[in-house]
């Protein structure tokens, strides 16, 4: 499945589902809430996330995922609604974009992180997106238009996110769902954009970021955001990111106190990792070598880390190991270095050394999903299924909504020939991937497997009943 994206800055305020007004902004009472209820928001968000989880265009690297999620939640914690559920994900796309969708779903293109000169610029874009959500812009637009078009909004949201194999279908869906009031929506969008700017700046400031990052990066967006092809509907080409709006944001920033903020190590290393995975591996290696030789960098350790990742991609294990030595001698310890060290030994087929490094890494960074997943995969390659299952069992409660823990269980049980447990685990993975029909299929297979004991059979049958209720009656979802 492929994701098809439009220029987000032109459309991101058309499809937002938010919650409470900030100081000095309109208090809408119950109007927007009655137009689009929390249940409606959840239904739309679940549909979107189902497409996200099934897409090949979504970044699966846990270190990149975790960085964006943690950055996003740091900003959410500084917003006017700290309890609103948000989900952040990363799209493997070199364009400079981010977008918010119904239900607090926020996507970030890898190109945005690479293009940012500092972490506050990324935080500025995310703060703006969060501003759309907490201000309930979608519900407010629907209330103004006095029509309940939840199905249409879900159609638009999904069309923006994924056109499956046919971009023309996305254009058609958006046009049919929106025809008749497009100019009004675009006019209202400009109001939303200014409002999200104001709210986003406050979120940034309260979260401890440099607010200058927002106008600085908006200027990059204005220069760099373009449609990839001509398939998007023409109304989406009206670009609300104007020079006047950027000037307004910059004026607001200059009225505040000056704050210089240091980038986190995670931002620097994630950005370097993304660069290391762009294009041919040897070309990426040359990029980092040149940066180091010419001293064109803001963080030297990040350049050595990027060179190590690119070298590992190129199977130049000697270079990767050499860069790791530099990092150990010159940079503060980090979970991403521990994961890199273990993966180098895996590539060298040094089984015992890799096992020791995974164990050592987890002693220092027990919450690192990269180390947990890497070690579990290593154990499965060695045929040590019981050890892999124990590792998953010890850590699954740290990330109860992560489907990959259950996929690892399913792989281990498949290797052990345990059919009921295999299908049960895969079913739970589908639940966490927002795919209830597939989850029910797997639970039905588990119930018919015939190799479980009475206790296991009872658990599967009870879960199957629960999932069928969830699918047939969304109001019963917990």
Write the layout of secondary structure elements.
Elements: H1 8-11, H2 31-35, H3 38-54, H4 62-76, E1 87-91, E2 98-101, E3 105-109, H5 110-115, H6 119-134, H7 137-145, H8 150-161, H9 167-178, H10 182-207, H11 213-224, H12 243-255, H13 265-276, H14 281-294, H15 300-313, H16 317-330, H17 335-347, H18 351-364, H19 369-381, H20 385-395, H21 403-416, H22 419-431, H23 436-448, H24 454-472
Parallel strand pairs: 1-3
Antiparallel strand pairs: 2-3
Helix pairs in contact: 3-8, 4-6, 6-10, 6-11, 8-9, 10-12, 11-12, 13-15, 14-15, 15-16, 15-17, 16-17, 17-18, 17-19, 18-19, 19-20, 19-21, 20-21, 21-22, 22-23, 23-24
Signal peptide: 1-21
Domain Peptidase M48: 65-252
Keywords: Hydrolase, Metal-binding, Metalloprotease, Periplasm, Protease, Signal, Zinc
Can you walk me through this structure?
This protein has two domains: 8-255, no CATH class; 383-478, Serine Threonine Protein Phosphatase 5, Tetratricopeptide repeat (Alpha Horseshoe). The two termini are 29 Å apart. Helix 17 (335-347) runs parallel beside helix 19 and helix 19 (369-381) packs parallel to helix 21 (403-416). By secondary structure, it is mainly α. It has 24 helices and three strands. The longest helix is centred in the middle third of the chain and has 26 residues, at 182-207. The protein has a three-stranded mixed sheet, sandwiched between helices. The radius of gyration is 24 Å and the shape is flat.
């Amino acid at each position: 499945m492929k994701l098809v994206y439009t220029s987000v800055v032109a459309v991101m305020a058309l499809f937002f589902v938010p919650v409470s007004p900030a100081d000095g902004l309109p208090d809408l009472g119950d109007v927007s809430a009655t137009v689009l209820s929390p249940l409606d928001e959840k239904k739309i968000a679940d549909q979107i996330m189902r497409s996200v989880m099934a897409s090949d265009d979504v970044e699966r690297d846990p270190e990149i995922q975790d960085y964006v999620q943690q950055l996003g939640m740091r900003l959410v914690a500084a917003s006017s609604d700290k309890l609103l559920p948000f989900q952040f994900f990363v799209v493997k796309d070199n364009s400079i974009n981010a977008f918010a969708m119904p239900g607090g779903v926020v996507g970030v293109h890898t190109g945005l992180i690479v293009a940012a000169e500092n972490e506050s610029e990324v935080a500025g874009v995310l703060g703006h997106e969060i501003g759309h959500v907490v201000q309930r812009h979608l519900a407010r637009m629907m209330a103004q238009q006095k029509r309940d078009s939840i199905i249409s909004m879900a159609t638009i949201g999904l069309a923006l996110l994924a056109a499956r194999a046919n971009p023309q279908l996305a254009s058609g869906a958006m046009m049919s769902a929106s025809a008749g009031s497009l100019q009004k929506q675009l006019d209202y969008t400009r109001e939303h954009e200014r409002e999200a700017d104001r709210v986003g700046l406050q979120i940034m400031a309260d979260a401890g970021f440099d607010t200058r990052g927002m106008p600085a990066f908006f200027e990059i967006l204005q220069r760099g955001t373009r449609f990839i092809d001509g398939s998007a509907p023409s109304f989406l080409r009206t670009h609300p990111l104007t020079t006047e709006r950027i000037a307004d944001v910059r004026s607001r920033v200059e009225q505040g106190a000056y704050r210089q903020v240091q980038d986190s190590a995670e931002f620097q290393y994630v950005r370097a990792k993304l660069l290391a995975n762009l294009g041919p591996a040897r070309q990426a290696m040359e990029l980092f070598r040149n940066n180091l030789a010419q001293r064109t960098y803001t963080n030297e350790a990040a350049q050595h880390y990027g060179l190590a990742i690119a070298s590992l991609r190129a199977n130049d294990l000697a270079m990767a190991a050499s860069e790791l030595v530099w990092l150990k001698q010159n940079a503060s310890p980090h979970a991403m270095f521990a994961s890199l060290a273990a993966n180098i030994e895996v590539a060298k087929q040094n089984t015992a050394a890799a096992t020791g490094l995974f164990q050592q890494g987890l002693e220092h960074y027990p919450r690192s999903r990269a180390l947990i997943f890497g070690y579990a995969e290593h154990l499965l390659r060695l045929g040590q299924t019981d050890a892999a299952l124990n590792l998953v069992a010890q850590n699954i409660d740290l990330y109860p909504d992560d489907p990959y823990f259950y996929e690892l269980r399913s792989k281990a049980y498949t290797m052990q020939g345990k059919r009921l447990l295999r299908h049960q685990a895969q079913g739970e993975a589908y639940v966490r991937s927002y795919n209830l029909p597939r989850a029910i299929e797997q639970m039905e297979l588990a119930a018919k497997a015939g190799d479980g004991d009475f206790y296991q059979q009872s658990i599967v049958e009870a879960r199957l009943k629960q999932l069928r209720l969830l699918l047939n009656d969304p109001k019963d979802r917990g």
